[in-house]
Amino acid sequence: MHSQIKKPHSPHQKRKASTRGAARPAPRRRPTGPTRVVLFNKPFDVLPQFTDEQGRSTLKDYIPVSDVYAAGRLDRDSEGLLVLTNDGELQARLTQPGKRTGKIYFVQVEGVPDEQALNALRTGVTLNDGPTLPAGIEQVAEPAWLWPRQPPDPGT
Question: In this structure, are residues 109 and 3 in contact, taking their beta carbons and an 8 Å threshold?
Answer without folding.
Answer: yes
